[in-house]
Design a protein that fits this description.
Chain lengths: 642, 642
């Protein structure tokens, strides 16, 4: 017989009973409380701290808690077990903001020129008027339906599942032999279709036929709802991936997935997120999720594994192996999506553990697989993934750039939401700074684009040197010595929402340097691996939400992007979502993504000594080898001379 | 608020509470008692009679009950509703006998000459030794497995389901990259396979790979368990179809299937029967159902519909339409079979409501679709199905012959089980009779083969005339006048197990005449429809369990079979099971059955005036047109002359 204890959470209506040794996080779940664990419950982030106000607990770890905190009863919920009747106070959770970027991303998706759904859309709706059976024509119901369908849709063969077959006799007779079928042509060109729905009556030809394109980002999930007949986007929605409460990055989530029920929990969270978004987009388009017959899903390899509950632990550990890159077509019921149960769910293919469907979809939407021009495609997020090539060949790599440009690992870093400074300008005489804030309010912190600009401005004005050290001997109170070396004050406490100075420190600069160095070293190795000098690249296409806000000039100045004429750079926006949208609409594009995945040669950087050398060389502003950045060298010279 | 009453069944441990107006059968079910309803609860057969010893009930119908029965409280359970607290006595149910014919039917199935499973078996077991992943080889688990599989099995492509995909990483790593896959090549020739199982370790090449062939008869279900590597039958089992308690014939079962939960109940019963038999056959072969990877199922169209819970009511009513004849391939889990959950279940195709997979499988196993000889294939059961043709064309029809030859509709008729007289001889001088009984015991009744012989012997000895009337003026106490016209005593009461005279009556003879006339009329119309005289038929192949025991001479004498030399007749045994066995083993045979089904032209007799004419002409012994039966005419003449 095991002992059980009563746990009372201040924010739960009822106390819960749990066995001796239960983790506080598990007890909280039982009480209906989800305590945010951005590190995935590893006891690293300290975000799950709660206050035990009475009773006995045992702390396995107190990382990030001071002795004083512990004296006050604070404990890491993911590392503390219950050993008596206890009372727990849960501090207000950081509410995950719903930052609707719908208007931003929907405008990025445009209907492909000349889209003709009858020629390229695998989902088709075929109305059929059947002749009723008679003693002279005793054809079976299914054969009757099939014969009419093959003729009407010009098909070779058609299949049907048993559950749908069972419904045929009633539908045919109740509708007096006038029906509308919805079919899927998995391999559009082979003339074989799967019947996925049969509706009573003849549906009007111009009634919308719905599909959804989904981009599962580690941070944000986005959905566009599309009328497959016209290709038009009629609804959209975006919100944070609910998995975020179980780990901010893919590594934390993989760790969480290996815990008991962790994989199922993560699957539920992302499916819930997608279902919410589809429902929301459907409301905007005045339709229902059950009317959505096809969903094309893009996302990195970890997101795909977690969506399908495929064990992901081999992604995290050397030699970094996915279980699967090309996922078979599924139906919505199998996945738990709220769309039509027999609706097709097409998870786009990836290439490797850290080059997923988001990148193959990105390559498709960038068109780099179809151009003669030597192209570099770049998607910067937590990882920096990049692809070099053209229609003849494609090489790819991923560098664990770290999430510095997403605001993590930087003291006052934050995501690009309201209150984030997103652009800065420094006066080279006074070292004074002006900035722009998202939402035009008082600033809370610095988002990625601001960090790039800030670093570039500091370099150009001499506040930071090539080695990344902040000079605190300048004639300004903004550059000063802080507790961890030099720091520069971006905003004074009274100008902010947070009531303290917003600064950038030597430690922050070092983190940003590591990130940009990893990305630049990635280019170097990719180019080197195919024997092409970086400067021969004819266009640089930048995908990802982050990319859109990068100031090219500044990014070149800090050595994040290669030094080449600005007109060679293009920002493509959310290429992962765009690729999913194209694959949703056009069977040929769907096939093209598979071809892209097959064609891409993946280079593993962590096993490549060239990468370490290139990384070390890039750990300067902009680079140790200034000849790679001639225009920056020029600017620096002219600025310093004036 | 509805009134409820207490019902106490003598054989149930506890009384049950039911609402006013509940049928006794439903109350019994609630008490855990299954009252046999051979007519499907239509109130026609009288088999569900129970005795209400106290309390108020209302009888909707009292068919087959005498006024005296009713006075004693007897009531039809399927037609009587409860209107008060009642006590019910359930008479001992006819226990459905398990008549194991395993040894009989297993011997019929022989391994096809030159069977080479690597060339024709769609289920294959492929052991694979994979090279582990490394930083130099980061192929995904599935791609690694698939590449090795395609090479080892010489395939173009391979697919896998999500549930199996999820298991790959653990299996590969725990087995140290040595595994055995089981694949299914649905279209053997296209080089595409579905992985249906992955086992740890390398399985020995000669370890059996199991499949099952199933014949779902309306009465009996038979299973043979086959080692797919060699084709050998290693286990077999047969028992009554458990659906029989819900209706003896297909019509009664269809009616039952339209009642609330009726279809689900029938599905459960037949699935339970099949699972029992597979388990039994597996025990005999010292293996487990979960090791069975493929099941080929034959049976008539109603049996197939009920197995899959496909609404069957359109089969019963004009214009007699099936929902589907070609059922898609299913997996065992979908169907509820106890074999390997991803095991393939292949339901063979039929042609029409009353020409099902049992007949297409029969045609295959008869080989008539591959011969130059004009062949008549005949399967006599409750219906008489027949096929005429050769390799160039096939026509088919079904005549509702009625179940007279199965013992129904005949006063002392019974199935061919122990205690049944199965052969008789009548002395033409004394009109005395000798007989043979199955099991060498005292007789209980007459089975089909005995009825044919008896009718022929009575005709030849003048006990019955051409019109089917029993002559009761003969010098024998055996031929006498009974309550319904003439009758002939086959066994005296003291010679029997039943304590009464076993007789055949004018009514019985009339029923038998109808049956044989329907079958003969079937031939006539089939032959007529293609313009071929019946006598041009070069061989008559007779399938079905019943066929095996027919005495050709006698069957010709009564005009059941056409008058042609005996050497043209062949008895093939259970051709439905044989066909399923062949389809289980050989992909080409499976395809051939589909071709046979496509090729067969179905002629609906109930819409054909020629059938009524031919039927009327055949309502004599042997026929009105004696020129069709020259040898019988000859025998009759010579017998009467001596």
């Amino acid at each position: 017989m095991s002992t059980t204890y009563t746990v009372k959470f201040d924010i739960a209506p009822e106390p819960v009973e749990v066995p001796n040794g239960t983790l506080i996080t598990d007890a909280a779940l039982k009480a209906g409380i989800e305590i945010s664990q951005p590190c995935g419950g590893q006891g690293r982030c300290g975000q799950c701290a709660v206050q035990v106000t009475s009773g006995k607990v045992r702390r396995r770890s107190t990382v990030r808690l001071s002795a004083e905190d512990v004296a006050q009863g604070y404990a890491l919920a993911c590392q503390t077990v219950i050993e008596g009747d206890v009372t727990v106070v849960v501090p207000p959770q950081d509410k995950i903001q719903e930052h609707l970027t719908a208007s931003q991303f929907a405008s990025e998706v445009t209907v492909p020129r000349g889209y003709d759904y009858t020629k390229v859309q695998s989902i088709q709706r075929i109305p059929l008027t059947l002749s009723p059976p008679s003693m002279e024509d005793q054809t079976s119901d299914w054969a009757r339906l099939k014969t009419a369908l093959l003729k009407a849709a010009n098909l070779e063969d058609a299949h049907i599942s048993l559950p749908l077959l069972l419904k045929i006799p009633a539908i045919l007779r109740e509708s007096e032999w006038k029906i509308t079928t919805v079919i899927n042509r998995e391999n559009f060109s082979d003339g074989i279709a799967q019947v996925i729905d049969i509706q009573k009556g003849l549906t009007a030809e111009d009634k919308p036929l719905w599909g959804a394109a989904v981009d599962i980002g580690t941070t944000t999930v986005k959905v566009v709802l599309v009328n497959l007949l016209t290709g038009e986007v009629k609804g959209q929605a975006a919100e944070y991936n609910q998995q975020i409460a179980r780990g901010e990055d893919v590594i934390s989530r993989i760790i969480f997935s290996t815990k008991e029920n962790g994989a199922e929990k993560l699957r539920e969270l992302v499916v819930k997120t997608i279902n919410n978004l589809i429902a929301k987009a459907c409301r905007r388009a005045k339709t229902k999720p059950s009317q959505v017959y096809k969903t094309a899903i893009s996302g990195n390899s970890t997101m795909m594994h977690l969506l399908l509950k495929i064990p992901a632990s081999s992604i995290r550990l050397a030699p970094f192996i996915t279980v699967v890159n090309h996922i078979p077509s599924l139906d919505a019921a199998e996945l738990g999506l709220n769309t039509h149960p027999q609706g097709i769910v097409d998870c786009l293919p990836g290439v490797a553990s850290y080059v997923g469907a988001d990148i193959t979809a990105g390559v498709l939407s960038s068109g780099m697989d179809d151009t003669e021009k030597l192209t570099l495609f770049l998607d910067v997020g937590t990882n920096g993934e990049m692809v070099l090539g053209s229609k003849d060949w494609l090489v790819t790599c991923a560098c664990s750039a770290g999430p510095a440009f997403e605001g993590a690992g930087v003291l006052h870093g934050m995501r690009a939401t309201e209150g984030a400074i997103d652009e800065v300008w420094i006066n080279k005489e006074t070292y004074d700074i002006t900035w722009r804030v998202i939402g035009n309010e008082k600033p809370k912190g610095l988002c990625g684009s601001a960090l790039i600009s800030l670093l570039a401005e500091m370099l150009m004005t001499g506040i930071v040197n090539k080695g990344g050290n902040i000079c605190h001997s300048l004639n300004t109170p903004r550059a000063r010595k802080g507790s961890h070396g030099g720091e520069y004050v971006v905003a004074w406490a009274d100008e902010t929402q947070i009531g303290e100075d917003i600064v950038i420190t030597d430690v922050d600069v070092d983190n940003l340097l590591r990130t940009k160095a990893a990305i630049f070293a990635g280019f170097t190795v990719l180019a080197d691996s195919v024997g092409v000098p970086v400067e021969m690249v004819e266009q640089v296409l930048i995908g990802g939400g982050f990319g859109k806000f990068i100031n090219v000039e500044k990014a070149i100045q800090i050595g994040l992007l290669p030094d080449m004429p600005w007109e060679r750079f293009q920002f493509l926006g959310n290429t992962s979502l765009k690729g999913a949208y194209l694959a949703l609409l056009n069977y040929n594009d769907r096939k093209r993504i598979a071809d892209i995945a097959d064609k891409m040669t993946y280079i593993e950087l962590s096993a490549d000594n060239r990468f370490f050398d290139a990384f070390t060389s890039a750990m300067f502003l902009p680079h140790t080898n200034m000849s790679l950045f001639p225009t920056v060298e020029e600017s620096l010279k002219s600025l310093r001379e004036t």
